[in-house]
Amino acid sequence: MTQSPSSQTYAFNGDADGLCALQQLRRAAAPGYDADARLVTGVKRDIALLDRVPAVAGETCTVLDISLDVNRAPLVALLESDVRVRYFDHHFAGEVPRHPNLDAHLDPSPNTCTSLLVDRSQGGRFRLWAIVGAFGDSLTVEASALATAAGLSPTDTAALEELGVAINYNAYGETLADLHVSPVDLAAEMLPFEDPRELLARSAAARRLASGYREDLELARRLEPHHTAPGAVLYLLPNAAWARRASGPLANDRAKAHAASAVAIVSPKTTGGFLVSIRVPRDAKISAEVFCRRFPTGGGRRTAAGINDLPEAALDGFAAAFLEAFRLG
Prior knowledge:
The protein is 41% helix and 17% strand. By secondary structure, it is of the alpha/beta class. The protein folds into 2 domains: 206 residues, inorganic pyrophosphatase (n-terminal core) (Alpha-Beta Complex); 103 residues, Diaminopimelate Epimerase, Chain A, domain 1, CATH 3.10.310.30. The strands form 2 sheets. It has a 6-stranded mixed beta sheet with strand order 6-7-8-9-11-10, with helices on both faces. A 5-stranded parallel beta sheet has the order 2-1-3-4-5. Helix 4 crosses helix 6.
């Protein structure tokens, strides 16, 4: 999905981390808050975005929360076309191009996310939005610590956590039609608010996401594991829009419920095959990203990763490999 032309383009993940990173930078771009910027985004797994950015000399592109490794070729093409690129991300990057037009802020540490990298670059100027993004990206410990340091009450902290989780949940879907609110529309809804608590108080879209999250997750929590082993739990979701939306939040929810185990959520795609979300403990012997990269469309980070297109014929092999890789003992 794209918006109207502009000399400034933002290519960003449509989840909470990408949106909250975007919100901080757009608020920092006052006056006007970059309201006319071109936005390039999609559902959470839609990360090959830079080939949709026009290569116009002298323009600026800011990239948020999408893998440099996946976007390497179009990134190099933009740089060589004299497009200035700011790149903030916490996923596997591989070799980073050396180019005078690239301003890279990359950190794959398991205790950070793109919203926190932007927060660092802005000196904490929009810290509350960084907290929302960190909560949405399941960095509960880090987000809670920042909330405490910012002097937030337990009630306000809980509200920001709920908002982050709801924004993140909204991005999970196979297509934009699965989502309650498109990421472009949600970015526009967020833009006027310097304080996310104002968004919660005044936005019908925010309330819609919160209620939708609760309803979908309640359905998802009724599911029984498809496969279990000591240290590994696998869920197979039904082929339904609510299940596709709930796949990521369910992975986070079940990871908390099975804190010592790796969790895999396998969701059927309408076009065939499966979408996979994996969460693993921070001290797991194999990282989620390393495991998922065994598969052609896999990637992510140490504690949270996924596979964008697992063929139907590969499901049994994936399940066996998952249970074997993360089995305890």
